[in-house]
Amino acid sequence: MWFPRLASDRSLRARPAEGPFALALTQENAERIHCLSAKAERLGLQRGMTMADARAYCPDLVSRPADLPGDSRFLAMLARWATRYCPWVGLDGADGLVLDVTGATHLAGGESALLADMRQRLARAGLSVRLGLADSRGAAWALAHWAEGIAPKGHVRDVLAPLPVAALRLDAPVCDALRRLGLQTVGALMATPRAPLARRFGPALMQRLDQALGDLPEAISPQAEAPHYGIRLTLPEPIGRTEDVMAGTARLLDRLCARLKAQDSGARVLELTLRRVDQASQTVELRLAGPMRDPARILPLFRRGIEAADAGFGIDQLRLEATLAEPLPPEQITRAGPARQGAALDDLITRIGTRIGLENVQRFLPADSHIPERSFLIAPAAFSRPEGAWVSPRPRPLRLFAPEPVTATAPGPQPPRQFRWRRMALATARATGPERITPEWWLEDAAWHSGLRDYWRIDTRQGRALWMFHTPQAPGWFVQGEFA
Fold first, then answer.
1. Dist. CA 214–CA 110, nearest whole Å
2. CA angle 149, 150, 153 (to 5 degrees)
3. Do the bridges between strand 149-150 and strand 132-133 make them parallel or antiparallel, or are there none, so unpaired?
4. How far apart are CA 38 and CA 45, in angstroms?
5. How many beta carbons lie within 10 A of that of residue 31, not counting itself?
6. Superfamily for the 83-213 domain
7. Residues 11, 64 contacting (CB under 8 angstroms)
8. What is the Cα–Cα distance from 373 to 401, expressed in whole angstroms?
9. Given its phi and psi angles, is residue 214 left (phi above 0), alpha (psi -120 to 50 degrees) or beta?
10. What whole-number distance in Å separates Cα of residue 364 and Cα of residue 389?
11. CA–CA–CA angle 287, 300, 359 (5° rounding)
């Protein structure tokens, strides 16, 4: 199966567009056509053409940016769909599939009926496809790209002979060199002595020819099935005690964590399904602050949910599944234990998150801004990693709040000797500063567009260390933070 317009067909399936259509991709410092619709091809546009030339030829051209990862996922989905015809399906480049339909064509009524059913279903889905069926993978590829159809059994040479040498999946420089020698078709290449060609072009040319003729086998590598992290335990007698359910869960965890370890993965979300004898089920969900595969750490986290479950007349089946898994590579073991840091913190976040929700356990992260209000972010601790310390030219207070005005005897540019804040009379013992902070003119912030701020650290005689600023454009003093 060759999908000549896979990317554009996928984009048009999601968002149809009238008229000529193309997908743009930046290559060699220029925006070029990556894939285009049949209507755009009929107007003379080609792949690799710059978008500026394409719009000059076709002013009505509709374009969108290409999504290569999305195309790869879509092709993988088509590979799963193609298993309806045979169990052995593999990827062929970025826009094709290869199927081994040996022994499966009779299920569709023959080879012709099989290809007709494929065309009909793919056309109904809005996909352009070219199909080739032959005794060898190379011959089928040549037919799909150059002469769509079926090669009768035992007549592969006759079918390939009139095709160009590019049908052998050769590199462009090799094809150009063969054409300069007068070898335009596969038939001419087959009639030429092999030894001179092998000396000049290397063994790859003869290998491709033998693969197309079926003289050299070519394996098909199907996609590996995605690992399934689900374990089930059926009990001979119903249970209801919490300790019994915990014991059964421990057995499931041992098997599940062994499977996760084999895949270098860790569970992030676990679901324990408790099926009762009356066929009703209850689910205990455990969301972890980080990927884990240690049964001893995970098992105690299930206790709260298991204790809250209603066993009814008894539980006769337990099922444990990791609905979300993340990569967890092997850890370096040292004398002090695993080198991975933060495991105890992840356990604590998980325990708290099971009670109030993981999204409600938050941490502060530094942000790239010198404005105090914008110098930090608040993110869920379970879905973020701690970063480095804040980078600032001067110390910042641990407590930061909205600016609060103070009443000063002489509100000048120098720190006041005495002032009132929060109904407290304070006296300045030492003042450190100023640190002038200018507004970020590219952001919309009414509080900062008014002008500058001069920040001071004010140590008062009463023992408080305040972070105060003065606004030169509108003389006044404010407190915005307090040092520990």
1. 22
2. 160
3. parallel
4. 10
5. 15
6. 5' to 3' exonuclease, C-terminal subdomain (1.10.150.20)
7. yes
8. 8
9. left
10. 10
11. 25
Range 373-382 contact pairs with CB under 8 angstroms and sequence separation of 24 or more: 373/400, 373/447, 374/440, 374/443, 381/289, 381/349, 382/287, 382/288, 382/289, 382/290, 382/349, 382/350, 382/353, 382/358
Instruction: Give the DSSP letter string of 376-396.
Output: EEEEEGGGS--------SS--
Sorted by sequence, the CB contacts under 8 Å of residue 455 that are 6+ apart come out as 394, 433, 434, 435, 436, 437, 467, 468, 469, 480
CA dihedral 122, 151, 89, 9 (to 10 degrees): -30
Does the structural domain 6-70 have CATH classification 3.40.1170.60? Answer: yes
The CA distance from 267 to 133, in Å, is 43
Q: What is the pLDDT of residues 374-403, one digit of tens each?
A: 888 888 888 787 777 666 777 888 888 989
Residue type, 128: S
What is the model's pTM?
Answer: 0.61
Q: Locate CATH 3.30.1490.100 in the chain.
A: 230-354
Strands 376-380 and 149-150: unpaired
> How far apart are the C-alpha atoms of 185 and 165, rounded to whole Å?
5
Phi and psi at residue 9, to the nearest 5°: -65, -40
By C-alpha distance, which of 25, 26, 58, 63 is closest to 42? 58
> For residue 144, what are its two tokens?
């799909």
Query: Over 208-249, what HEC string results?
Result: HHHHHHCCCCCCCCECCCCCCCEEEEEEEEEECCHHHHHHHH
CA–CA dist 50, 45 (Å, integer): 10
Stretch(es) of the chain classified as CATH 1.10.150.20: 83-213
Q: Which single residue is written with the structure tokens 């005690």?
A: 241
State pLDDT tens for residues 64-101: 999 999 999 999 999 999 999 998 899 999 999 999 99
- Which residues, given as ranges, of the chain have pLDDT below 50? 339
Element (H, E) at 36: strand 30-36
Non-local (6+) Cβ contacts of 313 within 8 A are 238, 276, 277, 278
Tell me how far CA of residue 42 lies from CA of 20, 48, 49, 81, in angstroms: 9, 16, 14, 30
Residue with tokens 């060199």: 177
Separation CA 254–CA 245 (nearest Å): 14
Q: CATH code for 230-354?
A: 3.30.1490.100
- Per DSSP, 96 falls in state B
**Residues of each domain in the chain carrying CATH 3.40.1170.60:** 6-70
Residue 339: the pLDDT is: 47
In contact, 420 and 410? CB cutoff 8 Å? no
Q: What pLDDT does residue 341 have?
A: 58
Beta bridge partners of residue 27, listed in sequence order? 30
